[in-house]
Specification:
The chain has 139 residues and is of the alpha+beta class. The protein contains two helices and nine strands.
């Protein structure tokens, strides 16, 4: 395994509808077959909320009227070190679509108390922290 000394920033979005969290089943990517949040990498000189809006739109077609900070997870357990920043989306309307079918098999809604066992390793601590209403976690 190749060591990488860079710290990357992941920006993820929590979309809640009727008490359920939107998750996508990853496909043809690291963590294929696991469930993760809509999100992705923060681009150079991009505002975090802009990245969250962009990723949500690119992956699901959904648009959020407002995004508020939800949590930060220091995810340093693998070959790559990530700071995962989560935002809660408000004012979201529409139905999630597979806008990137090569990356996502399906979108589904899950009760926060009955999440799937196979959560994406990069989002696992972040989703659990969100469910426990914690703003920070180390993984």
């Amino acid at each position: 395994m190749h060591r990488d000394d860079r710290i990357r920033a992941g920006v993820n979005v929590f979309v809640i509808r009727k008490g359920k969290l939107l998750l996508g089943k990853r496909l043809h990517a690291y963590g294929a077959g696991t469930w993760g949040l809509p999100g992705g990498h923060l681009e150079y000189k991009e505002a975090m909320t802009d990245a969250a809006r962009r990723e949500l739109r690119e992956e699901t077609g959904l648009r959020a009227r407002r995004l508020t900070f939800a949590n930060l997870v220091n995810n340093a357990h693998q070959a790559h070190h990530y700071l995962q920043v989560g935002f809660l989306a408000a004012g979201v309307q529409g139905t999630p679509k597979r806008r990137e079918p090569e990356k996502c098999a399906t979108w589904a809604w899950f009760d926060l108390k009955k999440l799937p066992k196979n959560l994406f390793i990069g989002h696992r601590a972040q989703i659990r922290a969100f469910a426990r209403k914690r703003a920070f976690a180390e993984d």
